[in-house]
């Protein structure tokens, strides 16, 4: 793929990773991803971010298409994570920038990741700082914890361009470079999946950043993230900002998710009975078997739900490993405004539902009903209890969404 001019004298020079299905080692990325880098040609040649180190040669090839001498004056590192800064040493060696700019917090990260001996001077910047590169200026906006402490945005007012690094990204590997080139529902799903598996814990920071951007009255008609597609119209810019506000607010939705693991299908049968109770309360739901669904798939589904019901048999006086791991993952992402409940079968001791209930309570999930546990194989009485559990939680969710 060729380098692409996205605005006059501003080029995408990144890389498309069609083979990346495991994003950062903890989240699935079934559509692959991109590592976007941007080059601005002015009196000073400025490069924003790089790519994963294994794609350094690809990036250098694209740079050569628009910059035959490969001479870059300034390198701006908006974020030091290695999918964006991994190729920095190769780019410095090939392009010999005279100066590097990064956030104040990034200085520590850079020193921790790289041997900087022989590098050009590194200048730390903060919100409100700017540099002139000729006809253009570059303004810096710190975006701490979106999603690392060192993250920042770069704004070029003359081009109405906001370069946002991880914020507003999606994991999409494709020949399309712009958001308006794919169908809106697919874009929404990719943004939501990315947000709920990566950005969600920092939702308060997202809301603060959106408020700050409004206060600064930034005039933006293009948002260029470092993963996925570029938003090149005012309509798309407004759309992604509104979506991020929606994601960050985490308002409850009238839909439930049931997740479970099972040994001899007893807990599985209980899950189906819980689903019938939710349906009777007028709440649609999805059931996900954790042996078949990755925890990041669960999190993406939970984005559209206001209730979470969890089932596990008792195993070694605890819960099954897939259930424990998924609950730990959800807790780390700090999902808010959920109602929920627990259910499960047991043979001897029966601790699983108590453990699940405690974990849900620790995640600040509202628990409007007692958990249901069943010894050995569930019968009619156990199914009635599961049905009642689903119906009670469905009614609580409906009231919460009213």
Q: Record the strand order, biggest sheet.
A: 1-2-7-8-9-10-11
Content of β-strand:
15-25%
Helical percentage = 25-40%
Shape: elongated
Describe the structure.
The chain is an alpha/beta fold. It is 36% helix and 23% strand. It has twelve helices and 23 strands. A hairpin with a 4-residue loop joins β12 and β13. α6 runs antiparallel to α7. It is elongated. The mean pLDDT is 93.
Compact summary:
This protein is an alpha/beta fold and 402 residues long.
Feature tags:
402 residues, 7-stranded mixed β-sheet, alpha/beta, single chain, elongated
Q: Secondary-structure map with pairings?
A:
Elements: E1 4-7, E2 10-12, E3 15-17, E4 22-23, E5 27-28, E6 33-35, E7 38-41, E8 45-48, H1 56-66, E9 74-77, H2 82-85, H3 88-95, E10 99-103, H4 106-113, E11 122-125, E12 130-132, E13 137-142, E14 152-156, E15 161-165, H5 184-199, H6 203-216, E16 222-225, H7 234-249, E17 256-260, H8 266-280, E18 285-289, H9 295-302, E19 307-311, E20 314-315, E21 318-319, H10 321-333, E22 339-346, H11 352-362, E23 372-375, H12 380-401
């Amino acid at each position: 793929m060729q380098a692409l001019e996205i605005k006059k004298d501003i080029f995408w020079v990144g890389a498309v990773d069609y083979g990346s299905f495991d994003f950062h080692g903890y989240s699935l990325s079934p559509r692959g991803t991109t590592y976007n880098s941007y080059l601005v040609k002015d009196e000073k040649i400025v490069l924003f971010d790089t790519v994963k180190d294994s794609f350094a040669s690809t990036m250098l090839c694209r740079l050569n298409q628009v910059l035959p001498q490969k001479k870059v004056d300034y390198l701006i590192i908006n974020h030091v994570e290695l999918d964006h800064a991994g190729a920095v040493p190769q780019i410095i060696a090939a392009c010999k920038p005279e100066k590097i700019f990064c956030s104040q917090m990034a200085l520590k990260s850079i020193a921790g990741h790289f041997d900087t001996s022989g590098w050009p001077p590194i200048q730390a910047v903060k919100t409100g700082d700017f540099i002139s590169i000729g006809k253009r200026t570059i303004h810096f906006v710190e975006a701490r914890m979106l999603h690392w402490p060192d993250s920042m945005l770069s704004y070029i007012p003359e081009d109405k361009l906001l370069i946002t690094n991880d914020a507003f990204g999606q994991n999409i590997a494709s020949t399309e470079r712009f958001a308006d080139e794919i169908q809106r529902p697919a874009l929404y799903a990719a943004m939501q999946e990315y947000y709920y598996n990566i950005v969600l814990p920092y939702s308060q920071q997202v809301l603060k950043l959106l408020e700050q951007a409004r206060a600064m009255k930034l005039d933006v008609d293009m948002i260029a993230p470092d993963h996925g597609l570029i938003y090149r119209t005012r309509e798309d810019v407004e759309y992604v900002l509104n979506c991020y506000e929606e994601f960050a607010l985490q308002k409850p939705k009238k839909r439930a998710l049931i997740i479970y693991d099972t040994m001899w299908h007893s807990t599985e049968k209980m899950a189906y009975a819980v689903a019938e109770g939710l349906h009777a309360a007028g709440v649609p739901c999805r059931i996900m078997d954790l042996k078949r669904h990755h925890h990041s798939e669960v999190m993406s589904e939970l984005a559209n739900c206001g209730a979470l019901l969890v089932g596990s048999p008792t195993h070694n006086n605890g819960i099954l490993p897939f259930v424990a791991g998924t609950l730990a993952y959800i807790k780390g992402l700090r999902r808010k405004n959920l109602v929920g409940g627990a259910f499960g079968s047991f043979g001897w001791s029966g601790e699983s539902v108590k453990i699940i209930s405690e974990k849900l309570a620790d995640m600040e999930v509202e628990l409007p009903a007692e958990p249901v546990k069943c010894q050995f194989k569930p019968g009619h009485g156990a199914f009635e209890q599961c049905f009642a559990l689903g119906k009670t939680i469905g009614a609580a969710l409906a009231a919460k969404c009213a």
